[in-house]
Amino acid sequence: MITKFISKMEAGEICAICKERAATDKCSVCDVPLCKTCMIEITIEDTHPSHRIKGITTRGIIGEAVKKKVVCPNCVAEVDIF
Predict the structure, then answer these.
(1) Secondary structure of residue 48 in the 3-state scheme
(2) Fewest beta carbons within 10 Å, which of 23, 32, 44, 46?
């Protein structure tokens, strides 16, 4: 099961950070609209033993080993990476 954090925006919304380009995604922390230039995609690798076989990350029984979050520059410090 893959959880998607990226949600599509309604037509006409502009980015809340730069206020110039059309928004394509939302921040997964504060839900502000973001354009492709302002968004930061964070890749989090799970460290649970069921995801590691001989040091290689694999898909485990409990789900995907790599999760992605889209955040704005203001929320990058608040993202829980553990």
Answers:
(1) coil
(2) 44
- Residues 6 or more apart whose CB falls under 8 angstroms from that of 25 comprise 6, 7, 8, 9, 33, 34, 36, 39, 70
Q: Which pTM was predicted?
A: 0.64
Angle at 48 between CA 43 and CA 54, to 5 degrees: 95
Give dist(CA 28, CA 34) in Å, integer.
10
Phi-psi region of 56 (alpha: psi -120 to 50; beta: other; left: phi over 0): beta
Are 59 and 52 in contact by the 8 Å Cβ rule? The answer is: no
